[in-house]
Amino acid sequence: MLKCLSIIRCVLQCTQEHLRDNTSVSGLLESFIYPGIRSPHPVLNSAALECLGLCCILDRNLASEQISVFHKALELAFNSSDEELTIIVLKILFDLAIWHGISRSPNHVHPVDVQDRSTSNIIIVPLLLFRMTETKADPETDLLASIATKYLDCTNEAILTLTAEGLVKLMMSGMMKNTEVNNAGDRIGE
Question: Where is the Nuclear condensin complex subunit 3 C-terminal domain (predicted)?
Fold first, then answer.
């Protein structure tokens, strides 16, 4: 099964089609990826999560549906001190945030300036700051907020490095301003 997941990962890395337009790839979800995630073997879990992450990049709806799978995997990996899986899932979440944005609809969450703390409905985190336009919290934004606060306080250098890489990706993609990155850097140094 691991070899199959490795081949699937390579295929997904090379494809540019939306999953809705590629039924053969979407069939791999049920046959290999979901069973790999449910497997009791950590190596299969990691490979299947990577494949699911690539599928989610190809399909925004799938990304919205599966965000809780990544959150659960991240919590389990971090709590069990599985650094490798923690890094894999963090990379997936950063990539999904960059590729699809943070919320399910583009008008739901807007970037804000760090200096503007006058609004009471701002989730204050050094990594990602977004203004909620609805009173109901968005699970994806809450997930990224919890990731940001938890992993900026982590003492693991690899995870802190990944957080910095994620910040740079978000800055380079225009999702964050330089002032937000500087404030996040100050937070990491504390």
Answer: 3-179
